[in-house]
Amino acid sequence: MVTNDSFLKACRREPVPTVPVWYMRQAGRYDPDYRKIKEKFSLLDICKQPELAAEVTLMPVRKLGVDAAILYSDIMNPVASMGIDFDIVANIGPVIHNPIRTAADVARLRPIDVDGDLPHIMETIRILDRELTVPLITFAGAPFTIASYLIEGKPSKQYLRTKAMMYGEPDVWFALMDKLGDMVIAYLKAQAAAGAKAVQLFDSWVGALAPHDFDVYVLPVITRIFHELANVTQPKIYFPGVSSGELLPSLARLEADVIGLDWRVSIAEGRRRVGERFAVQGNLDPVVLTAPMQVIERHAAALLDEGMKRPGYIFNLGHGLFPEASLDKLKGLTAFVHDYSSSRFAAGVERSEAR
Ligand code: CP3
């Protein structure tokens, strides 16, 4: 049962006693216990064992004291059900054995079958729903970000083939966006029904697009996804990924509750760009975690001072944790976010600065 709901309150822009905090990619290789599990099992093996996947999800919650859990899974898991054959290769990421390059490739993609192909993920969510005292966030990869893996066949810097399809064969591109949009909607609905307390859409790489191209080639499917999820009552988060600052004004009408910010835009500017309707989540540069603790705290305090000026702020990183991060510093940072924000709230800071 969820006894700590400060994360859900912040998603809904309700007042909280302390600023909630969780970390993107909080289950991972910075934790020696996780590395031990990874010696025996691959990421995909872990995901197929619900008890183990639930345990890996719980580990950072217990160790770090964060206010939300994020399902241990990967954005690629559901595309296996569409007929994509892939591996997650250590230190590289998703590698696709049958990349999508043509109209015929797109036509062959099947709708996902959650009950038939992904029952282990739904079972993990049900286990976590019973065991967690903080809310469980589940997630999907957004159409552009998934398409970039499916088309390139591996992680990419330029997105040359992805953009070549987008600009050169818009019919094929939009057919692919439609199919991936359907996948996201079905998958997030199933997660919400299985017990997720919030859902996040990761569009990690869409910041590679010019704002106008985002509006033309990607925003329609993102708009449709959140519109079709209107009956999902759990908070919905859109993370437009790295270098997404220039895209934020395009998001102002999205039927989502929270927008994730990367560190290249300030909290104040991010709020100004997306408008009043959203809570915001972010956005410490993860590399700040390499600095001494007092430098980390100085950066965190600056973010909190800005974030706490309005209800609807969730402390997080601007992108994922890296394997070299330190468990002790993360623990220290979590405690700092809680202590600093509760003492500032107690001092009435948010009210005096809110105007
Ligand atoms: O705590 C958590 O966040 C765990 C759940 C999680 C994973 N992937 C597990 C994972 C989540 C939320 C993701 C999302 C994900 N996967 C994204 C969106 C977030 C982001 O970082 O932008 C993306 C783009 C992917 C695709 C992907 N999978 C990448 C780029 C990598 C990194 C490759 C590497 O080795 O560094 C993966 C592998 C992956 N997914 C790992 C984990 C814990 C690391 C490798 C491992 O431990 O097996």
How would you characterize the overall build of this protein?
- By secondary structure, this protein is an alpha/beta fold.
- The chain has a single domain (6-354), classed as Alpha-Beta Barrel (TIM Barrel).
- Helix content is 48%, strand content 11%.
- It is built from 17 helices and nine strands.
- Strands 1-4-5-6-7-8-9 form a seven-stranded parallel sheet. It has a two-stranded antiparallel ribbon with strand order 2-3.
- Helix 9 crosses helix 11 (170-194).
- Bound molecules: coproporphyrinogen III (CP3).
- Coproporphyrinogen III (CP3) is lined by residues 25-29, 38, 43, 70, 72-75, 88, 90-94, 139, 145, 155, 202, 204, 320.
Number of strands: 9
Radius of gyration: 19 Å
How far apart lie the N and C ends? Answer: 36 Å
Total of helices: 17
CATH topology title: TIM Barrel
Q: Which strand order do you get reading across the main beta sheet?
A: 1-4-5-6-7-8-9
Task: Indicate how many domains the architecture comprises.
Answer: 1
Summarize model confidence as the mean pLDDT.
Answer: 96
